[in-house]
Amino acid sequence: MRFAVPDISCNHCxxxxxxxxxxxxxxxxxxxxxxxxxxxxxxxxxxxxxxKVLRDAGYPVKD
Length: 63
Description:
Elements: E1 2-4, H1 11-22, E2 27-33, E3 38-43, H2 47-56
Antiparallel strand pairs: 1-3, 2-3
């Protein structure tokens, strides 16, 4: 699943997103692309859960 996250701007953002998502059971891989401002996640987890975690971390997903 790929999500557009317009507030990604630097490696600090990338690390915060990776840390927030890596604590969630069911996520197998996380790819944060700073240049494209996207987060790609694979695993057995719902899109809504990922969106909530990103929003709670301060990086809301653009719909």
